[in-house]
Amino acid sequence: MEAVTEMKYALDTFYFLVSGALVMWMAAGFAMLEAGLVRAKNTAEILTKNIVLYAVACIMYMIVGYNIMYGDGVNSVIPSLSFLLGGDNTVEEVLAGGEDAPYYSNMSDFFFQVVFVATAMSIVSGAVAERMKLWAFLAFAVVMTGFIYPVQGFWKWGGGFLDGLGFLDFAGSGVVHLAGATAALAGVLLLGARKGKYGPNGEVNAIPGANLPLATLGTFILWLGWFGFNGGSELKVSDVGEANAVALVFVNTNMAAAGGVVAALITARLLFGKADLTMALNGALAGLVAITAEPLAPTPLLATVVGAVGGVLVVFSIITLDKLKIDDPVGAISVHGVVGIWGLLAVTLSNEESSLLSQLIGIGVIFAWVFGTAFVTWLIIKAVMGLRVSEEEEYNGVDLTECGLEAYPEFTSSK
């Protein structure tokens, strides 16, 4: 019996680690997607942001964020504050039996959770692209990953008051995606639009990305990584019931993305008369975000429908934000925010334990907390070092002004 227990512990720990590695690979997906959707003169800078934000997230979450999110808490609203990671489980604790016995390594849990934090911060990167100062962005990353994200994470996944209210969010349509999009929205509102994006009479001028093959590769990487994102959130795989659950989560995740692609492409064709690749890419991501709040309860057909609704929503959301002159170069606020809200509401379609009121409260609380704290943080950074590069620097490209090099020096001019 002890050998079986140890084998299950080892298997679930390994599954957790591999799932975390898949989610970590999503950092590459975000980097490729964003590098493909910005102009050539801003590519090296956004790649720098993506690799450094991942490192910052890991360090801040190790120092303080993980303990805020998963500490005992002063109460269900106020988390506790402590620093650095504790030890791992002993053999005696694992073999103790009962419901309280750990079934995977504490360190595997940290690794799985830290890559989620980096995902939330990656969402911010694309929305503020092409005109934000690199060091202002990285300063915000410190606060977002160390404090803002973990507090609202504690309220749900750390056993806080949102969890007590019955708010359901299986893998993070709200805790990760809505939180990241909300922080991005606060930054974009303070930052303003890129020069030339909007005309004086309300015109919306398209600013094409430099490398659509790269953006497509990034989308496929994100699609792959999402199997770890949602599948790993089942937490176990070492018995028949859990193995079947993980398989269903994988299938539903895949089907939702497929539904999002097809629905977004058809919507774009009806609206624009063309098969818009960028909308199809965002449709895939929208489908994935939509199913993330509840990938286990729906049938594969319903999961496809949930993803398809997300694909339609993201197209209309991108158009609407442009009409409001909210400039988001990669559509991150629409994909992760608007569709994140839809995903949280869609939980009520398949999970009998869900409550529409609880879901609405969770959406409101996450948005209010993240927007308020992010807006104040952005304001402080703006006062201390400024948020936006100069007009000349924006014209020349932030690759040269922030990084001193170009991503495509043989093929492009800085101007």
Describe the structure.
It is a single chain. By secondary structure, this protein is mainly α. It has one domain (2-403): Ammonium transporter fold (Orthogonal Bundle), CATH 1.10.3430. It has 15 helices and no strands. The chain has helices at residues 2-37, 43-70, 91-95, 106-127, 134-156, 161-164, 173-191, 212-231, 240-272, 277-292, 300-323, 332-346, 356-384, 391-396, 398-403. Helix 7 packs parallel to helix 13 and helix 8 packs parallel to helix 10. The mean pLDDT is 96.
Attribute tags:
single chain; 415 residues; Ammonium transporter fold; 69% helix
Our count of domains comes out at: 1
Going by CATH, the architecture would be: Orthogonal Bundle
How large is the share of residues in beta strands? under 5%
Overall geometry comes to: globular
Q: If helices are DSSP runs of H or I spanning 4 or more residues, what is the number of helices?
A: 15
Q: Please tally the β strands and state the result.
A: 0
Summarize, please:
The chain is mostly helical. Helix content is 69%, strand content 0%.
Tell me the layout of helices and strands:
Blueprint: H1 2-37, H2 43-70, H3 91-95, H4 106-127, H5 134-156, H6 161-164, H7 173-191, H8 212-231, H9 240-272, H10 277-292, H11 300-323, H12 332-346, H13 356-384, H14 391-396, H15 398-403
Helix pairs in contact: 1-2, 1-4, 1-8, 2-4, 2-5, 4-5, 4-7, 5-7, 5-13, 7-12, 7-13, 8-9, 8-10, 9-10, 9-11, 10-11, 10-12, 11-12
